[in-house]
Amino acid sequence: MSSPTMDLLRSEPMQLAQLIIPMESAHRTISYLGDLGLFQFKDLNTEKSPFQRTYAAQIKRCGEMARKLRFLKDQMTKAGFSPSSRCSFDTRVTLDELEVKLGELEEELIEVNANSDKLQRSHNELLEYKLVLQKAGEFFHSAQSIAAAQNHEFEANVMGEVSIDSPLLLEQEMSVDPSKQVKLGFVSGLVAREKSMAFERILFRATRGNVFLKQVAVEDPVIDPLSGDKIEKNVFVIFYSGERARMKVTKICDAFGANRYPFTDDIAKQYQTISEVSGKLSELKTTIDVGQLQRSNLLRTISFEFEQWNLLVKKEKSIYHILNMLSFDVTKKCLVGEGWCPISATDQIKNTLQQASLDSNSLVGAIFQVLQTEESPPTHFRTNKFTSAFQEIVDAYGVAKYQEANPGVFTIVTFPFLFAVMFGDWGHGLCLFLATLYFILREKKLSHQKLGDIMEMAFGGRYVIMMMALFSIYTGLIYNEFFSVPFELFGRSAYDCRDSSCRDASTVGLIKVRGTYPFGVDPKWHGTRSELPFLNSLKMKMSILLGIAQMNLGIVLSYFNAKFFGNDINIWYQFVPQIIFLNSLFGYLSLLIIVKWCSGSQADLYHVMIYMFLSPTADLGDNQLFFGQKYLQILLLLFALVAVPWMLFPKPLLLKKQHQERHRGQAYRPLYSTEDSFELEIQSDLHGHEEFEFSEVFVHQFIHTIEFVLGAVSNTASYLRLWALSLAHSELSSVFYDKVLLLAWGFNNVIILIIGIIVFICATVGVLLLMETLSAFLHALRLHWVEFQSKFYEGDGYKFYPFSFASLSEDEE
What we know:
The chain is α+β, with helices and mostly antiparallel strands. It contains 23 helices and 13 strands. It has helices at residues 23-36, 56-79, 95-159, 170-174, 196-206, 243-255, 267-323, 346-359, 387-397, 408-422, 426-441, 443-446, 453-460, 462-479, 531-564, 568-599, 605-614, 629-648, 650-663, 677-684, 694-718, 721-745, 750-788, and strands spanning 14-22, 40-41, 185-192, 212-217, 222-223, 230-231, 233-240, 259-261, 327-328, 334-342, 367-371, 495-496, 511-512. A hairpin with a 5-residue loop joins β9 and β10 (334-342). α10 (408-422) crosses α14 (462-479) and α16 packs antiparallel against α18 (629-648). The model is unreliable at 169-173 and 666-689 (pLDDT under 50). Pfam families: V_ATPase_I (PF01496). It is found in: Membrane. Residues 95-122 form a coiled coil.
């Protein structure tokens, strides 16, 4: 069957279908429908909690497997591996086999990690022990050297003449009986450097100064055995006397997280211990390296098959989730499902069901039958990579009601065009186009990379930005601005000086010597005293014309909506008065603008429009643009006044009459297709109460009428943002060019010129190409959402989300 043509104006015709699937082929049928991706299932078990459903155990099982896969992915990430896109050798792995395999891999990795952590901790402890042996050994060695030097000095004093400066008690001190000397104990270890001052202070206070502390800083950070973090530490040796002092010192060391290590003051034993520790470190390092190699090989093997396993688990979980939405028939041998699908996909779904039954060797095939319903179907538009971004702009405001006119069709042209009216500069447009051209040419590669939030957004809207850039080049050629510089691209200017020297150009002005410049603004306008008044007048009037045209388009689309849904009330009592009211006032203003441009009249349009209301019968005088203008204005004013009650009163009365006739059985006409929420409530009354709240309908219509009448004025004024943003963009570009680039050029200095060029580029990119682009984008967005779509677009539908494996989220849990 050939694929249906893409239609963006109306959403795809949908149908509610029922599937009756035999139990033996249910799993395979749902899997095939997931591959097809054209059926949106309805939950028929809403009254049951997730734990009460038939396949809750299978979903829990898949959730556990997903947890193990997340654990494996975390381990791969820590080891520096990423899931590979290589084809796996085992392409037919089943869920049961995968469950066993994942359990074995998790256990193996947990065991390997535990052993590795244990070995690493021992390695770090030995490294600290070695540092203590080295640093404390140096301290004891230096202390013994000092003691030996003092001993030699004493012997020299005894042998020679005693100096008057010699200590009187030295002989007594050195000749004390060794048995009566106090034996000092000591504790050695490492403490964090940031805690060393507090550590010393607490030791002093707790022992009342009866300890001696010696600290030496370790040059490089040390890996702490407990936390595994790199910490700057000090080696300490604490000398104390007595058992109570030892207990206090030990407790303080534990409180400060200081790691204590045994140490002997025997130099021979010190060297022996250092050699033993070095040997153990070497052995541990070898063991750790072998374990890391084994772990890396295991994770590398997992990375080759991870994507296939992950996809299988996600598919199985989504299949059981859909199976839980189906209900059992009375025989408990079949599953019954309901859901929405496009009418054009009927044959594809039937073929898929038939294929699933054949592959399952089922004796009974699945049944597909269409159900009749008054429920509003979901909205589905077939989009491609070009139109999808424009459709997303519309959907951000609200999803279209089923088969109402889609603004996305017109947004493809009007959105970039209104953006370009505010951004008109073909130099800036060219820069935007080259940037998006890079995205488009490399889209296959970039679509599989993580680009960051801002770049991801720009890449997703690359075709929108491309259209914006192309229209900006077009409007820039009309404005004749290339980074605010005009060019004679389409011929010579129509104006010139009166003489060759142009001495009187600033006083007398230029004269027209040739035909009108063929395309866009004449380059001679730029830089003249009348440039700003001329461009202001041009862009302001152009903004009003564009605004009235787009608002008229919105009202015309409301007519096509009403005609499509067969709602004559909305045609005669909403569309007709709205089009009359808008064009009687602002359509007439647009006519005056065009007549003034064509005739070259000097009429003051502000005066004409103001006195059209204040004094409609007064003589126009010099402001008359054509014969019979006064009488036309009076007629249009009367039309506008009549249109207001036309919008307000008939529609609620006719809706009440329709309701009464239907209630008496004289006429039956479902109103589910109308665009008013109150009419939807009337339709729903068929299934409940029969009340018709005339006051609510009238108040709603009253608000709607006031909103349109006031909106006609405010929305027209809102389109003046096209003029304001265009003027701001042009003036900013001119300031950067004149006050940065030309100013730097005037210094005749290469360094200043280079700095000026860099500042000009940064200002152009940062302000004009980024900030101004975002500003014009948001203003164009507002004009479409508020001024255009409010005229016809309800946007109260809901999207068609078919069950599809292609749309499985990577972060699904």
